[in-house]
Amino acid sequence: MVLTFREAGAREGVVLALSLGTTSPIFEGDAAVVVAAVNRAGQDYSNIGTIVEDVRHLQKQFPGSLFQFTYKEANGVAHRLARFGLHNVDNYFWFEVPPDLIQDALLCDVLSRGQASCPPRCNFSFYQ
Q1: Which CATH architecture has domain 5-69?
Q2: Hey, where are the domains in the chain?
Q3: What Å distances lie between residue 123 and 61, 79, 92, 110, CA to CA?
């Protein structure tokens, strides 16, 4: 089985939420295939089925949690953090104040509310 970062990311997001003790989280991702697979009823026999089933099993510990699709352009924070992670081997956690490297992307993500494009007043380039 070939495991992509998208499936692994979905699983790791749920594991992180469990370790933090969150309640009713909303998991967002820009991989429509993964989000649809997690939300689809019944056994998943696809090539990503094992991970999808694992995510579903872990998600059961969060009554009321959701997996939802978001356009990658509306997910600038995740993109910025992923690029940051490519060049850093240390683990970082931020809980109160977001780090400077994502503040503009965070503003754009919030203002775009899942739209396919960033509002003009954001002045944020997705590919920064």
Answers
A1: 2-Layer Sandwich (3.30)
A2: 5-69, 72-122
A3: 39, 16, 26, 13
pLDDT average per 10 residues of sequence, the chain (128 residues)? 64 89 86 91 89 92 88 78 81 81 82 61 50
CA distance 74 to 43: 30
Residue with tokens 């850093």, as numbered in its chain: 88
CA-to-CA separations, 40 to 47, 57, 89, in angstroms, rounded? 15, 13, 35
Q: Tokens 């991970």, residue?
A: 51
CA distances, 54 to each of 38, 45, 59, 91 (Å): 10, 13, 8, 24
10 φ, ψ (degrees, to nearest 5): -60, -45
The full DSSP string for 24-82 is: S-EEEES-HHHHHHHHS-S---STTHHHHHHHHHHHTTSTT-EEEE--GGG-HHHHHHH
Which residues lie across from 95 on neighbouring strands?
none
